[in-house]
Design a protein that fits this description.
The chain has 116 residues and is an alpha+beta fold. The chain is built from two helices and six strands.
Length: 116
Amino acid sequence: MIRLFCKESFIHENKISFWVECTDNEVVEKILPHKSDEEFIEKIRRNRGYSKINPNENEKIYCNFFLISSDLDYIESYNWVYPYGGMWNAGNPFIEIDTVNIFNLNELSRLKTNTD
């Protein structure tokens, strides 16, 4: 599930990137085929947390959170609080878009953003 993106930010080498939220199964099926070193896997485990954009607000679901560039060159696991606007003051690089569900990461290169 995607609801945020960054456009040309220092965070990810000035690439368009998306804040991707996924289940444990989706990590195994969709993320690990692209990047799976031990350090990355440990980081995923540490960053796992409650979904904040879960459509069912009465159900707490553990998810994993990634910032992934549209060309898939940049894939990094982050803690769920990372896109929190207050931590960035006026420089928050995240922009909200309508929620998008994707079936594989290659779809990121075709996503349109509100500022295109």
